[in-house]
Write a structure and sequence with these properties.
Elements lengths: L1 H4 L31 E2 L2 E6 L9 H13 L20 E4 L5 E10 L7 E8 L6 H9 L5
Antiparallel strand pairs: 1-2, 2-3, 4-5
Amino acid sequence: MVHPRAVDGANDELGDRPFARSLFGQKALEPIEGDVLENGEPMALLAGFESTFAEGKAGEIERKVLEGESVKLENFKIAKMSELSSKGSRKSIVLKPENFKVVAIGKDEFNEGKSFATISFFLSKGNYATTVLRELMKEDIF
């Protein structure tokens, strides 16, 4: 649901804010009218049968996305297999790796003329390391 938030901000300057990038610009990460906020950060809807939509523009976007995919909240309750049901939740749209460390940098023995980097970091539940790695690979930093 980040994309519809930022259609108007696709060309915004990102500055040097690490890990605050989005394919759709900085505007996608900023609160909009009606956002559910936690620690000042917008929370995205993870739809489920007990989900409640945000208010205002944020809620309109949530509804529009689900309608566009023909998804109804009641679809997340599976009576015959309750373990597959999802009550729903929210998660931050801002990904912040913690304890980020560059462990090693060197010549890549498998790819001539290339370098390698070994890094470590911690992500909170529900976030994926591949998201961080994709952002790092966009830049020529190693």
